Structures are given as structure tokens and as C-alpha cells.
Amino acid sequence: MLHTLEQLLPAISLGGIYASLALALVMIYKSTGHVNLAQGEMATISTFVAWSLLQAGVPIWPAFGLTLVIAAVFGAGLERLVVRPFKAQPEAIVVTVFVGLFVLLNSVSGGVWGYTARPFPSAFPDGAVELAGGLRVKWHLLGSMLVSAGVLSAMFLFFRFTATGLSMRGAADNPASSRLLGIRTDRMLGLGWAISGVVGAVAGIMMAPITFLDPHMMTGPLVFFFAAALLGGMTSPLGAVIGGYVIGFIEVLIANFVPHGNELRMASALSIIVAVLLLRPQGLLGTRIVRRV
């Protein structure tokens, strides 16, 4: 029983990372109506920035804090310079822009930092901590659980109880009415991209010590947090969080308890995507979108 619990604990950490990234996807989708295919590549570049700061001798926690600031500016800059000029274009053109942004950021990270996988230091001590009942948990695993929970809690409080967060929700749900109320929707959209960049940076910094750092670090996880966002509902922040933890548990269960599970993890995520699109396109908690044609 104890061994089984130790095998399942990574699902909480992994689910928190997927939930954070799925929430970032939902934020952009609610604001623009499009899926940010470059979300994982934004996280990868931010993680490389953190690695570069560490190599320059910056202490680990100040390096991570500075990385979050850079990630926020980077996210807002991408929205202003790349995404906003195409917002009035046909949908096919906007999708092409997101695909191009994915390819561009992946190429930039490979061109600047190279394609060699390298270790990334954890912000937490080596070794493990013993919890109640003799359950042993690695410090990085426990730390990433707490960090993910902190990020998700901060996002909930921000969007629920702050004027800026409420304005962002209003701008995403009804841009026209928000403009009539004096809310600068373009500024709210830029802020949403900035927050999305920060959330992605946190997820990348938590994931890199486990998977190693390279330009394709987030290419595989993109399928999983996209599945999480679809499962929960692309219009539901709460659904994104629930979907992230569900996908995390499914991945760990398959990897640990199904024969040849490691080879089936990606197939399981793709199966969930197909099933949701066929059976319930709005996801578990999302709302059905009806458009007049």
C-alpha cells in the first residue's frame, strides 16, 4: 500500500503542472478565441533564461524571480507585436500565426542554447522527506506540489477578489460591454498574456529538473495539458485545473500499472482529446459556443 502511494504521489505534482499550463491556455482562449499553440515553447524559453542566469552566477531563487519578470514582459510583448496585429484577420490566418509562433520560438531556443539536453538544478534540497506512516517524498516533488498549489490559489484569488482580475474576466467574457464600461480590453489582453508567460515559466522551472532541459522539453507535455484544457472545458478556468489533475493521474496510473505503460501515455492523452471532441466538445465544465453562420 505504501509503495502504491509513493507511485501515485507524482501524479499530484504532474497534475499541478498540467493544471497550470491548461489554465494559461484557457486564459488566452477566453480572451482571443484561439488556442495558444506556443504556450509550451514560451515556457521552454523562460526556463532557458533561468538556466542562463544560473550559469551567470545569479543565486537560484533570485534567478527564478527575475525569470518570472522577464517571462511577463516576454508574454506581453508577443501579444503586442505578433498576435494583436492579426486579431481582425480571418480565423485561418490567426491559426497560422500561432503555428508560426510555435515554430519560431522552438527554433530560437535551439539556435541560441543548442539542442543538447542538459540537467537543470532543483530549487529544493536533494533527498527525500519522510511523512506520516513512513511515506517518503522527494523534496523536489513536494516542493513542486506546493508551488503549483500556490500558483493556482494565487490565480483564483486574483480573478475572484481583485479589480484588475474582475476586469480581465469581463474583458474576456464580453469585450464590447467591457469597453462601454471603460475597461481597456487591449490592455487586459496584454496582461493576460503576461500572466500566461509567468505561469508557463513556473511550470517549466518545476518540470526541467525531472525531464532535463532542451528545446523540445515541452513538445510532449503540450499534448497532455491541451488534453487537460479540453477535458475541463476551454472556457472554464476551474475545468482546466480539474482536467490537469485528472490527466496527471491517468498518465501516472498508465505508466505504473499498465503493461508497456510508458509507451501508451501519449496515446492515452490523444484518445482523451478525440473522445472529448466527439462526445462533449465543450468539456466537463465548459459552455457550449453557438455561432451564427
Tell me about this structure:
This protein has 293 residues and is mainly α. It has one domain: ABC transporter involved in vitamin B12 uptake, BtuC (Orthogonal Bundle). Helices cover 74% and strands 2% of the residues. Strands 1-2 form a two-stranded antiparallel ribbon. Strand 1 and strand 2 form a beta hairpin. Helix 2 packs across helix 8 and helix 9 packs across helix 10. It is globular and about 60 Å long.
Total number of helices: 11
Total beta strand runs: 2
Distance between the termini: 56 Å
CATH architectural label: Orthogonal Bundle
CATH fold name? ABC transporter involved in vitamin B12 uptake, BtuC
Principal-axes geometry comes out as globular
The biggest beta sheet reads: 2 strands, antiparallel
- How do the strands of the widest beta sheet line up side by side? 1-2
Number of domains: 1
Give the topology string: H per helix, E per strand.
HHHHEEHHHHHHH
Low-pLDDT runs of 5+ residues are none
Report the sheet-strand fraction.
under 5%
> What is Rg?
19 Å
Q: What structural category do the secondary elements indicate?
A: mainly alpha
CATH class: Mainly Alpha
Relative helix content: over 70%
